[in-house]
TrEMBL record:
This is Pro-apoptotic serine protease NMA111. It comes from Colletotrichum abscissum. InterPro entries: PDZ_sf, Peptidase_S1_PA. PANTHER family: PRO-APOPTOTIC SERINE PROTEASE NMA111. Gene3D superfamilies: 2.40.10.120.
Amino acid sequence: MQYQIERVYDDPIHDFAFVKLFTEDGRTPGDLPEEVRLRPNEAHRGCEIRTVSNPYGLESNIGQGYIARINSNVPGGNSTDINTEYITVTMSSRGGGSSGCLAVNVKGNAVALHCASLDCVSFMLPLFLPQKALRCLQRGELVSRGTLQIMWVLKPLYECRRLRLGEQWLSRFESLEVEHLVCAKVVLPEGPAHHAVETGDILLQLDGELVPSLLQVELHMDSHVNDPIKLTCWNGEEIREIACQVDDLHALTAHHLVARQGTIFHKVSLLTAIHNNIPVRGILSATNCQQPFLGPNIIESLNGTPLSSLDQLNKAIDANQNEHFITTYLKRLDSHGFSIPYTGYQLGAIDQVRFEMRKQPQQGGPWVITSMIFPTTIRRPLPGLRSLEAVLQDQAMGTSVRKSVLVSNPTKLLVGREIFNNMFSFAAHRNVHVDGEFSCLHHGFGLVWNAEQGLAVARRGKFSIFDEIVMTISGRIEALAKVIFLHPVIDLAVLKFEITGDFEKPLRDPLLADRTVLPNDPVCYAPFKIFDNIYIETIVEDIDEASCFSDAETNQSSFKPFSSPTCQLRTPPKPGQSEGVIINEKGAVAGLLLPGSYLIPLNTLRSVTEHVLSGQVANLRFRDFDIHRMLLSDALRRGLDQRWAQVIATNQVLYVNRVPAHMRLSTSDSTKHPLRQGDIILMVDGSLVTQGFELGFEYKKPSLRVLLFRQREEIEVDVPTLSLHEVSIDTVVNFCGSWLQKPSLAVRIACHPVYSEIYTTGCLCGSPADLYELPRQAFIVGINGKRVSTMPEFLNNVTDLPFGEHFRINCVLKTHEHKVVTMKKSDLAPTIHWCKSLSSIEDNVTVNVIDEHCWRFSVGGKTGA
């Protein structure tokens, strides 16, 4: 049977929690199995136990073991458990999924809770505190928890003797058969005992009673919350009597979460303070998502406003909504008290999704969502560029503030090289998962191509059309930009920005060469190093073609371009300088050089930008097959007629290297792609083609007439070209935490056939898709037995699925293995649809929450719609 659950208690510093089971209508189920009796006192050395768990997803796996020790320290890898003793059990190694299972003895009573494993040793939590919490919950009482903001550990008795603890004390503990004493490991600053207790002090008595175990320390603290107590400690020199007041542990736990600017904030909890030895105060950025709140850091101020609570943080962000960028002072958890200034843009798209969650601080009960703002249309404001007179952004684009004399004298910065005026660095912020890439921040460089129209070019592999981009041009001008064109088969992107400001030295278009570079041309190479302007005079050794990137830097991008020209320079770029501009002797731009010696020639740059400026991008069509070169002699050995040797002036021909699969072309054998891998291309539309640049990348015709050589025969086929919509990712859907899109061109090339236009690229941690193991990189082909092949069909079928009820998803993996996943929708994972029109460069990204009318959240403990 399956039930709904609700968390009613989770311990602040121990690895256990209690949940409540109920049916769909909110009633307590009456067919529950018999309860397990908690008997922590029955745990002793040599006790035989059994565990029932599901390691590695195996259901009802029974393990056997014996208790070896009942007073071990918490293993170092468990960061959610402190101030307790663990039970060590010798048994077979436990796999993933075993944590949380109960260990029962031969009587069937539970004696411990499995928490961690190391080889053939399992570590288990004693059930004294869980039993105490359960009794309080059954009586409807609050679970009182106290602390002195100290982390205690066990120290063997013989080590305490080395610390010169008196024999009278040692004999008293030995008479109680105590093997370990309680020692202070971490004493937090500003805690109730920081003025008297030091690290390494041994705790002997609490209010006059001997302390033989950590359990007694916890029970004593829990019974004296907000009351004064007296500690007797040995500090290696003398016995000291210390008076202090016990703090409420629940009050030192994060009970309020705020999500703003793509980052989750909460106050510093006791566990975080213990692990970093910092005071329990301040605001912590819990996730490492967006600048300028890189986490985990303690946020001290925002644009000069000191912050000490989450309400102050919300007010400060709202008060600075009209500011283009904000400055925060952060204190890194590993910086030992040093504050670091960070500067970054306030991004409207990132701040679209915001929510707040709370829970009662007196008890670890369920989290309650108190407010939620869904995303709307993401508008891309393009304010006028402005000069940063006192602030200069580095290559990280908005992540740090640098003092620089170069700003006051930009002529020295350019050292007479006008091309550096047109270089820019950028930071692309992304809040969707596209093509398997979910890095929230991408950095890179580019070149301003048309200053009057506000066009710039950069690497295509760094962007998606959903990105929000911040540019710094020539190290002195900042602007927001957006992607208006991503070339499907070339590593080239065109950005749009707007210039309205007046500057001492306004932007100008770069001087363009009259032709592209050729072998043996003397050129200059200017790497994209805005603050270290390097101008390398060299000679083009060779212009070649490569089927794919070979440089290690390019493996970071999921975009794999088709075969394109490569440029080999006599003076090769050094590491870190592999991306830049090639300039001829007259100082004119002749091409872009990208990592892997990948060359984007001038004629390609001109052709693409002219199509963008004329508004004809939506009408362009592209070839979907990749080519590579072959020696003419090899082609003749395959049976190519000798007459072609008289016609072909070069010593090479082209052959088909990679062919994609399309769902519309893979429904039957008769409609497969007309080309086959290994086909030798002879003529295209009546023209002889032996070089890659002769074939081109962009077309206006719906098909190409190709004469090819296959299996010792010359045949003519019509090869269809694809529109921009067919090869571009313009729609992304998040369904139950899983990111869905149509398969990209790279996926279509790798997978034969393509089973549907719905492809999973990843999922959010803890989402229903993650919990029910919806596979990544798979094609969804059915919902509840009904065939779906396109994204509109999928959305129509999942919109009416009720919350809390199971449904089936049929999918096909990249290995052609069919899989059925049974899952259900969650109230906290609505279906969100991102869409961007490719027909107009002025259109914004549209965000639609499909399940908003069905989504439920709790306010003040009540469920609302």
